[in-house]
Amino acid sequence: MLLACRELNMSFDAVPVLTGGYFHLEEKEKAAVVGINGAGKSTLLNLISGTLTPDSGSVTLKGGATFGYLTQHQGLDSAASVYDELASARAGIFAMEQELRVLELRMASAGSDALPRLMEDYSLLSHRFEEAGGYAVRSEISGVLKGLGFGEADFSKPCRVLSGGEKTRVALGKLLLTGPDLILLDEPTNHLDIKYQLEVLDIVKASGCTALCALHDLNLAAQYCDRLYVLNQGVIVREGTPEEVITESMIKDIYGVDATVDHHPSGQLNVVYHPAHLAKRTLP
């Protein structure tokens, strides 16, 4: 078990927004919290991340595990380029590379007394650099950016000129490059065209980390997640696999709309909504 949340309670101005309940995430599991706006999804993620402190209850992350948090609103308004923004996630590697260049210059001019020690330092640092993936870091950054839909012509764009969806993709790429054990994503498909919604979730699903997303789209939740938690008025009212959770009765109870839940020929769970205005339409 990577994450466990027990009896979390949170109120704002004496109004409960999250009440009790228990859930956990296993390592490598991809899960989603679903529910209407105001159900408590963002509050739950903020409690897990430590952005908020619960009135009571506990959040336990496996010892030594790390996490990253992709919030709904990305503050990427700097003049840094798209490439440099992602590269900052590997600042330690680039610092080691610079140190290697300095050692090379010092070795080139060192006398016979100092050279052995410099060579030993260089050998040790080279090994650390290689172990950290230093020789592949530039291709790794480029690969992540291309996987998120950025062409090489976009690498030099300042982050401040990007659209909201582009900033979300940059922030996700930077988050993944830090290599956390757990990633929290609050509406990661907001502001994204359908193509990039799928590409972002493809990358999350293929990653080796555990992921917990707040999502609105039940079809995406079914397609990309192993487990779902349904929040309603701050309470987890259902949990299980997409097959167990996404039912016509749940959609009616939680979202207040009629829907048909069936399966695509590929076997994928499929939700089709029936808007009230269509239900009332009569044929001529």
Characterise the protein shown here.
With 284 residues, the protein is α/β, with parallel strands linked by helices. The chain has 2 domains: 3-76 and 163-258, 3-Layer(aba) Sandwich (Rossmann fold), CATH 3.40.50; 78-161, no CATH class. It contains 11 helices and 12 strands. A 6-stranded mixed sheet has the order 6-7-8-4-9-10, with helices on both faces. The chain is elongated.
Structural class: alpha/beta
Rough outline: elongated
Q: Major beta sheet, specifics?
A: 6 strands, mixed
What order do the strands of the largest sheet run in, or round the barrel if closed?
A: 6-7-8-4-9-10
Parts with pLDDT < 50 across at least 5 consecutive residues: none
- The share of residues in extended strands comes to 15-25%
- Strand/helix succession: EEEEHEEHHHHHEHEHEEHHEEH
Give the total of beta strands: 12
Write the layout of secondary structure elements.
Layout: E1 3-12, E2 15-19, E3 22-25, E4 30-34, H1 41-49, E5 56-61, E6 67-70, H2 82-87, H3 91-109, H4 115-131, H5 137-147, H6 164-177, E7 182-186, H7 194-206, E8 210-215, H8 218-224, E9 227-232, E10 235-240, H9 242-245, H10 248-255, E11 258-263, E12 269-274, H11 276-279
Parallel strand pairs: 4-8, 4-9, 6-7, 7-8
Antiparallel strand pairs: 1-2, 1-3, 1-5, 9-10, 11-12
Helix pairs in contact: 3-4
